[in-house]
Amino acid sequence: MKNKIAGVSLNFSHMNFKNIDLISFDSYNSLLDYDIVIIDLTGISSEYDYDKDYNGRERLYSGKKRLSNDDSFKFLSDFKRRKEEIKYLLALGKTLYIMLPVESSFYIYSGKNEYSGTGKNRQKTHLVNEVNVLDILPIKLNVTTGFGSKWAHSTDSPYRILFEVKGMEYYYNAYFSSEDKGIPVAYIANTEKNISKVFPINDGRLVVFPSIFDEEYYSSEKEYRKVINNFLHTIDDLEEEIKVSLDDYSLPEWADKYNILTEKNEKEKIEELNKEIEKLKIEKEKAEDKLSSIQKYKLAFTTSGKELETIIYEIFSELGFKSMPIEHNRADGIFEYNDLKIVTEIKGVNGSSAEKHGAQLEKWVSEFVEKEGIIPKAILIVNGFRKKDLSSRNEAVFPNQMIEYSTKREHCLISTVQLLGIFIDVKNNPSKKEEIITTFLNTVGVYSEYMNFKKFL
Fold first, then answer.
1. Residue 127, domain member (yes or no)
2. What's this model's pTM, rounded to 2 decimal places?
């Protein structure tokens, strides 16, 4: 056997077979260890104790059996676990065979009680819920109970061999319909009533199959065992046949020099398409590079440190500012615009700016005056509240307590978001450049333009 097979709640679970592991529904043996799983839904409820009266007879509720209180909870736990396993089993591309039950529903204890009467006459009633074992499946089946042995099967499907097993006695105890699409395999003779169908689910297959393993239909246990083994070999072979698809074929390299039918035309089409794909790849790479070159300017309102200084340098350069060399541990940036010398301090902070930033800028100004003998324009550029979304930056980047200090020293205070606004406006409206930059460089105190980022972002 090439595939590992498990049988759950089967009629012959009391026997031993070398080609199949027989496990109970309530066991902790995982179904995920197997390639093929067969579940007889009829046998599931029989693994649990039913509610009984004082004479040991099973109680019925609305004509159906009810599990005992303790086993009701155990069943629910097992049912949930097996349902998840079935889902994953099919997702892994494996095969599940399901045999339909004669009666699919029964009752279980809900865990809730209802009381009536008072005193000695007070009575407790256990409240129950109806469960349907068909709910364990990932598809919806509308099942009708009906016994018979007159059937027919499809002859143009690999699944036909399921109904050609030597010695197998086939009968059905139910027929069904489903809105889920599947491959019809067998049906009641002279009707369209399905008794077997294959449903592709994810990469796996769910095979609904009629009941076939009742020992009473065979003359001896030896014959019974032989038929079961024949069936196991059949589904093993079928699994291998289904796995092998002509879509997965391969040819030797030399076969490519021979063209059949319209092969040459198809090759030429593929070659043209590959050229188009290559062209599109180049265009995509160019578009991605252009996108990246645009998106990098968002660093102006997201980052800090050297990365922030670098993008501010680039923005100033794009605006026509000339960068001047600076000494180590000196101003964050010295620029020149139309003969005007500019000294900057650039900060990225988690909160608002502070007076110490203005004091640092003033220090750079003093050093510049001492070295060059010229009073530069001082600009403090701050990315405030940098870790917050722009829409959440509701506080002023430059608080009142520092504005007076900077204003007295004729500093221009501007946020990186505002500077980005200048950059975007100049790019979109080149004719306004000189007007915008002149206003910016003439500002003393807080720069008042581009305060609302929503107008340019």
1. yes
2. 0.54
Question: What's the structural domain count of the chain?
Answer: 2
Domain residues for the domain of 122 are 5-243
Distance, CA of 330 to CA of 377 (rounded, Å): 16
| 3-class SS of residue 325 | coil
Strands (E), 122-277: 123-132, 142-148, 151-153, 172-177, 183-188, 194-201, 204-209
Edge-to-edge strand ranges of the sheet holding 333-337: 322-324, 333-337, 340-348, 377-383, 412-415, 445-446
Q: 353 CB contacts (<8 Å, ≥6 apart)?
A: 347, 380, 382, 384, 397, 398, 399, 402, 413
Give mean pLDDT, residues 241-259.
76
Query: Would 275 be classed as within a structural domain?
Result: no
Q: Are 97 and 207 in contact (CB under 8 A)?
A: yes
User: Where a domain ends, among 243, 267, 287?
Assistant: 243
Backbone angles phi and psi of 9, in degrees to 5: 60, 35
Is the pLDDT assigned to residue 375 strictly greater than 90? yes
Mean pLDDT of the chain: 91
Both 78 and 198 in one domain: the answer is yes
> Per-residue pLDDT tens for 330-358?
667 899 999 999 999 999 999 999 999 99
